[in-house]
Amino acid sequence: MKMIYALFLILLTVSCNSGQKSSAKLTQTPESSTKSDSNSEIEIEKREEINEQNQEEPIETTIKGKISGLKRERDKIRLAYYFLDKTYIRDSTITAVDGSFTFKGEYPDGLYLITFDNNQNSFQIILNNEEKVEFEAFHQGGETDIVINKSEENRVFWDWINYLKRKRYSIKDLDESLKDTSGSKKETIEDEKKIIESNIEEYRNSILKRHNELFVSKLLKSSSFVKIPPCENLSDEECKLFRYRYSKAHYFDNIDLTDTRMLRTPKWHSTISTYLENMVSQQPDSLIKEIDKLAGFMKSNTEAYKNFIIMQVNKYAESKYVGFDAIYVHIVKKYYESGEAPWVAEETLNKMIDTANKLEPILIGKEMRNFKFKTLMGTAGSLFSLKGEIILLHLPVSDSLENFDVLDMHHLGEIQDSYEDRGVQIVTLYPQLPDGSPRNVVERYGRKIKIPEFIVFLKKDEYYSMRNFLRNKKNFILDKEKKIVAKDIRLKQCYSILDNLLN
Description:
This protein is of the alpha+beta class.
């Protein structure tokens, strides 16, 4: 019965709010994407609203509605539109005493939301190249019923919604009957549920066949699952792999990602995000390959392509996963620096390219830049002269020895005691002291503390050059070839990473 419940989920989310409490966060204008934390230094592009000039010129549409059952006689009604993963206010008005209202304007095609009762309740309508949309809404007991008086798109849309609502009640009654039922009677009820499932599928297919020219058909199709052929002569593991591969290969069969109207529904963004997060291995190389494949597919539609690229560059600029900055660098290099993102402002473009250029040398897998230092004993050395199987490169919070982080030094000491015999070397960078000589004792809290041997001193200019090169990221783990295998991690995380590398 998975399909039935999935269809009801669609009913309550994508296809219709049906008087449910409105969950949409409405904003007056499209918000720019922001960095997820104030310490992030990756330059991200502001997400732009869809460029309506790049789609067919929207016609002037008059929306006439009437809502019975409002909490207030003269209520504020908002017309909102979906765009990628957000919902924005497009228009607003006040109802007459009888609950009637009118919107008039050039509204781009897509799925819209009408909210009322101070945004606590809402329902959806489709705008798709129709000059007039007229309806009556009856709100009572948390449910909203809609009667469409003018608009073929919305008549088909709401016939489908109302049909699913009736089936939902039928399923609910059957589920109640199952609670105290067993044996042949239970099988009979299960058979009835299967019949309902079949009826839903037949009704949906009839809409797709009879109304193929309507946008509602694309919406319904986009909300349906790909049918996977049965496994034949395969083991359980082979069948599982077959189902995964088939689902991945046909994931976008039911949605037209190049249809600009789909950007104004929740499905375009959610389908792409779910695919990249659940169907693709969460490794930078795998994700880069799929992003490039989808970008190439969407190039036939300027708006779909543009918003996909913006969506991805913003996502991976904000990502907290170690190594995912490689995806950001790839996108900037391949699409922005190459001139394939003509919509971006020159100032933003230059900042993005500069950021990508600075990130590229410290991506995982890159060889760390060499540097020269002096030890506590005054011995000269360099990063590449170290013989450890693994190097833990630590950049302290403060440049001053007198202000070293006690907890960090404690962790570093523990790591050295635990892993030194296993070939791990620790290097903590500090600038050379004013007199040019290292120091092995520092005064802290009124007492003298011996400085750990893993602290090394760089000439002042080289120290700050190295700090800028590392972009103030605190900890890097390098292999014996001095290639980066982990970075920007807490010292407490180093234990498990070192164990994995050494085992």
